[in-house]
Amino acid sequence: MHDGNAASAPGPAPLRTLRFGANYTPTRGWFHHWLDFDLDEVRADLDSIAGLGLDHVRVFPLWPVFQPNRTLIRPRAVEQLVALADAAADRGLDVNVDGLQGHLSSFDFLPAWTGTWHRRNIFSDPQVVAGQEEYLRTLAAALADRPNFLGMTVGNEINQFSDDPHPSPDRITREQAGRWLERMLAACERGAPGRMHLHAEYDAAWYQDGHPFTVAQAARLGAATAVHSWVFNGTAQRHGRTGTATEHHAAYLIELSKAWARDPHRPVWLQEVGAPAPLIGPEHAASFTEATVANALDCPGLWGVTWWCSHDVSRELADFPELEYGLGLLTNDRRTKPAGEVIARITEEWRGREHRPAVRSTALAVDVGGAESAPNRSVCAPGGAFFEAWAALTARGVRPAVVLAELAEDAEHLAARGITEVLHVSDVPAGA
To answer: What is the CATH number of domain 19-350?
Structure first.
């Protein structure tokens, strides 16, 4: 397991070819397709994704379907996951698998053995945690010999179960969250040694004071840092559809994560980003996609961009938040949408090219009251003093990196990252 605990020696960033992909949302039945798995439908979906020129998909087994009992991991479900991965390989697509689903598009998917009469904390109960370990190990092991298997993501934004605003959270401490993540990542590594295993949180880890999952965990545990960029978090409401903060939100999260990373060349994966209506209307989705991806590509150390999502959600399915129905690069009948055309063009432009944007030599120092627990991390959220100062600098044409306040005068750290100038929030005029 990669934990990033040892700082890398200063040196040039490794050469990388950018990866472009999509979070795979099946056209027939959404993620409920696992209940009526149809490999021909999956192949048709993957054909349409490959037709955009993408090179990978992120896929989502539903935890209750795959592990309906703590000691039953359904062999047939695992076989279907492998069949999906093999179908992806036939189309030149690599596969990342999210294990613990967990939470998807406003719906929770927890197995019956964790709730109601069997209610147990999914992060701290010894039996539940042991069951999760075996589940993740089993999925990873089933795919370990597939060349197109990138690795496991522990779960999709599973941190939302740990704190408000979840209506029934399983509360834990920061230390418990860290131990849980380490155990889950180790289970993935046991199943498939040497693959890119990581974890992914929604932005409470970055923005919410007191949240048990932290930026330090995101930026130091696992083989890469995953960021999920959604501008409905107050960014677009405050700054508008074309505001600098809105069009650079993904880039901001990428750069923010680097302040905590011990390895100056740790890869950052923009693992989810989308154009949510009505803040980004359908007629503006393409321009938002263009700007967001271009700004993310201006960040050194980017591993790749994985758009949310591949296909629209069918209107035959009820009770989704309205914005969830239209986030696809392709329609529910597999036609390419304008945003999909943008992604296809960008993918073609970058095919085979080395990604080496200029170093961000000016950094803005962030003070969150201590790197480990970040008790004041809300300064990083939309409307927070640090967030607004970073956006203001960006609007002035500066390309700000981010450095922790406690490292702002650490010459070795700054040199390793190529930072030659450090600014503070107080240096940025209000409303600049």
So the answer is: 3.20.20.80
